[in-house]
Design a protein that fits this description.
The chain is 20% helix and 22% strand. The chain is of the alpha+beta class and 229 residues long. It folds into 2 domains: 34 residues; 162 residues, Sandwich (Protocatechuate 3,4-Dioxygenase, subunit A), CATH 2.60.130. The strands form 2 sheets. Strands 1, 4, 7, 8 and 9 form a 5-stranded mixed beta sheet that branches. Strands 3-2-5-6 form a 4-stranded antiparallel beta sheet, with no helix packed on it.
Length: 229
């Protein structure tokens, strides 16, 4: 084998080697490109995050921080007085639950405290409630949705009733008389937030709005009364 032939063989081997290297390079870059393409699938977890606001769906509530003598306050204005109206009846039974099984309307539990103007709780304070039913009618022959109770040693009360209905000229409201032992008897009314007829009711007073919350146990209301000692 002469020198020319050997040189030709060497050149052929080099050409084959270079071709092999050149063909292997795209294979490496292709696999790396595939890795980069799959990266966006990891960010698909952000799609799950988009649904997060649905968790925050909640019922609108009124702010309980506006309750009289709340947040450690040392004084408060007396609860505004309101007209008694034509439907008060003396001699209501002593009962904290005005709601009766099968009664139409939305059941609500209202809790709160009776305080003096210097935010001292009033034990054994009288609260006498009366109201219309869900259809806006008062029981004037009996004592349905009428009852009185007394606060406990901490000045707390609890009323279980239904949200009253509307009747001509009046928004939803609950009447109540409140009196500290040997104190002045005040007559007032409680109102419900978000009722359209609040704006057209001449007796409505924003300072007498219940704080309302929808809970897993049903509708809950709160109000604190401040009465003369």
């Amino acid at each position: 084998m002469n020198r020319k032939t050997i040189f030709s063989i060497v050149i052929a081997i080099c050409v084959i080697a270079l071709s092999a290297c050149a063909s292997s390079t795209p294979v490496v870059s292709t696999s790396s490109n595939n890795t980069n393409v799959t990266a966006p699938t990891a960010s698909s977890n952000t799609d799950t995050n988009v649904t997060a606001p649905s968790v925050s769906n909640s019922n609108n509530t009124t702010d309980p921080s506006n309750l009289a003598c709340g947040s450690g306050s040392g004084s408060a204005s007396l609860t505004p007085e309101e007209t008694e109206g034509p439907y008060f009846k003396a001699g209501s039974p002593e009962q904290a639950t005005l709601y009766q099984a099968g009664m139409p309307g939305t059941k609500i539990v209202i809790t709160g405290y009776v305080y003096t103007a210097d935010c001292k709780p009033v034990a054994n304070a009288l609260l006498d409630f009366w109201q219309a039913d869900a259809n806006g009618n008062y029981d004037n022959s009996g004592y349905t949705l009428r009852g009185h109770q007394f606060t406990d040693a901490n000045g707390r009360f609890q009323l279980t009733t239904v949200i009253p209905g509307l009747y001509p000229g009046r928004t939803e409201h609950i009447h109540v008389k409140v009196q500290a032992p040997n104190g002045k008897l005040i007559t007032t009314q409680l109102f419900f937030p978000g009722v359209t007829q609040n704006d057209s009711d001449g007796i409505f007073n924003q300072n007498l709005l219940l704080s309302i919350q929808q809970t897993s146990d049903g509708m809950q209301g709160q109000f604190n009364f401040v009465v003369p000692a």
